[in-house]
Amino acid sequence: MSADLSPVIAATAQWLVRAYPAAGGALSAALAETQARQAATVAARLLHPTPVDVALLGIVGPGGSARLDRLVGADAGATDGAEHGWRTWVDETVASWAACLLADPALAAAAVAALAEDDADADGVCAPAFRRLTAPDAHDRRAASLLRHPDLLAPVADLHRDGLAERLRTGPAAPAKAA
Predict the structure, then answer these.
(1) Which residues contact 173 (CB under 8 A, 6 or more apart)?
(2) For tag attachment on the chain, is the N or C end more exposed, with fewer CB atoms within 10 Å?
(3) CB 146 within 8 A of CB 20
(4) How far is CA 27 from the centre of its chain?
(5) What is the pTM (predicted TM-score) of this model?
(6) What is the pLDDT of residue 1?
């Protein structure tokens, strides 16, 4: 299932690091990208927990970054053209949930725990795999100071924060029972 979400995860993480760039060189950029990717992975897997959800995403598409770009003040003219086609794979809800997780490591830890509970076989979902998201050290925080700043993230995080809270409170949608 993760492979089917990989275009959405990659595009959403890319959007996050472009909207909230790292300062301090290549190492900082790599650390910030890792944190954004981890946040987008957790958010995407929470939002699309079943193979049916992932298949529906493939049919209807994730929606793109246009609204997010306007929200953070990105230059719309700079996002036109084939070189920015990756933006069509950005999922607004995934970006919003990822912003919530980046702003609050305790919430991120709860989200990772929810993923582990959802996966009966826990296929690679464990806290150490998401350490940079759930327990960032000083280097991680410095590298992603904009990416983790709650006030800067608020416009994006607030878009779908209630949905994330509901998802973490209630768990995934229960599969339909046969009659």
Answers:
(1) 49, 50
(2) C
(3) yes
(4) 21
(5) 0.88
(6) 45
Gap between the Cα atoms of 143 and 122, Å rounded: 30
Residues in the chain: 179
Handedness of CA 111, 36, 27, 146 (dihedral sign): negative
Cα 66 to chain center, whole Å?
Answer: 16
Please compute Rg for the chain using Cα positions.
Answer: 16
| Residues 105 and 127: beta-carbon distance below 8 Å | no
In terms of Cβ atoms closer than 10 Å to its own Cβ (0-12, 13-18, 19+), residue 90 is buried
The secondary structure of the chain as a DSSP string is -HHHHHHHHHHHHHHHHHHS---SSHHHHHHHHHHHHHHHHHHHHHHS-SHHHHHHHHHH--B-SHHHHHHHT--GGGG-SGGGGGGGG-BHHHHHHHHHHHH-HHHHHHHHHHHHHH-TT--S--GGGGHHHHS--HHHHHHTTTTT-HHHHHHHHHHHHHHHHHHHHH-SPPPPPP-
